[in-house]
Amino acid sequence: MNRKLIIASALLIGFSFVIGGCNLFSWTSGENTESLIDEGIQKMRDGDYQGALAEFTKAMAEDPNSSEARYYHAKATMSVSGFNAFNIGVDMTESDHADGEALPFTGSSWPDKEAEKLYIAMSTVFDDLKPIYDGETTGEFKKEDIDLDFAIATGIRGILFFQDVNLDGLINSGDVDFNITQVDTLGFGFGPNDLTNFITKQFAAAKTTGAATAHDDTCAAIVAFNMLLDSIEVVITESRTIINDILTSETELSPEDIDALLADVIKLAQHWKINDPADNDGDGNSSPTEETINGVDDDGDGFYDEDAYWQSCAGY
Hints:
Layout: H1 3-19, H2 33-45, H3 49-62, H4 67-81, H5 85-93, H6 112-133, H7 143-161, E1 181-183, E2 187-189, H8 194-207, H9 211-245, H10 255-271, E3 291-292, E4 308-309
Parallel strand pairs: 3-4
Antiparallel strand pairs: 1-2
């Protein structure tokens, strides 16, 4: 082939890449992060929250360190979910410690589908805002601009962990629906048969893998449940730390009330470990001398099966 023809062909191919939008020497889509954010903000103003979320998602892909992209993605996520951030915060401040009152975001007023929708939204908001809170982003929004929002998202996510027992990011029939209510002024507690139902369900699920392994699988699930309680305590403690950092801030919500609720949730996470030799509920007794998982208040303290022992999994 003629050398000039080869060169011309190469130039033609290269030109076709350029006009086709395929720039081999650029690692970006060519869309500017700021323009994507501006477009998203305009769509928010127009009420097109789903469209705005798509723009902010693209902006985050372009620049994961942009605090604006992350903040507005969180804001659009809340709008698309249909939840009002302020009203959610109010729900966390209204616990009056009345006997039988459900833990916020659980109970009959929060069916699985609604709780799951909130859980997914809060998990997204948490992921969006954490890098800003940790000082890992650049741009307009700083830690102090999002601290209360991040604290609330962290707290709600931690509370809803109780409903996502298998930690698959969903709240559905694959989980155990714990009946968590206020026990007079003692704090929140599980219902009488919650842990019994939990073990029964885990055993039934384990049997599908074979009768020989069902026992071990169930005991492993109990270990995982204890780890879940540890994780909840860590997450809620982080939320409380943030709340306490901003107690002097002027907000429309009551950080003190939110902090009191979160303190009760930490107590809830601490009390209900299974087959743990420590005195988790701090009453001076420790399993196996205290409660067994039987749906009965063995020690007469108003709680059921806390700091419990299940003989079948001794040694786990």
